[in-house]
Write a structure and sequence with these properties.
The chain is mostly beta strands. 13% of the residues lie in helices and 47% in strands. It has a five-stranded antiparallel β-sheet with strand order 4-3-2-1-5, with no helix packed on it. Keywords: Ribonucleoprotein.
């Protein structure tokens, strides 16, 4: 199972991901890297929880704050 998740995350590098956080925030950004604890580095991140997105730039999200990750669709 962990290998499948790692493969999915690796295939999503440099692509846009959508994250739901424990504080009810939603963040969107380009996945740069991740580790075994699901700590994520994102470029061009935005807080899209409100009507007007707030630009965050390059961020590191600690894995225990992430509830869900929406990965991009697989290309045909």
């Amino acid at each position: 199972m962990a290998d499948e998740i790692s493969n999915l995350m690796s295939q999503s590098k440099d692509k846009s991901v959508l994250l739901r956080l424990r504080n009810n925030k939603t963040v969107k950004g380009n996945l740069v890297d991740f580790d075994v604890h699901m700590n994520l580095t994102l470029n061009d991140a935005e807080d899209v929880s409100e009507e007007n997105p707030i630009k965050l730039g390059k961020i590191l999200l600690r894995g225990d704050n992430i509830l869900a990750i929406s990965l991009p669709d697989e290309e045909s």
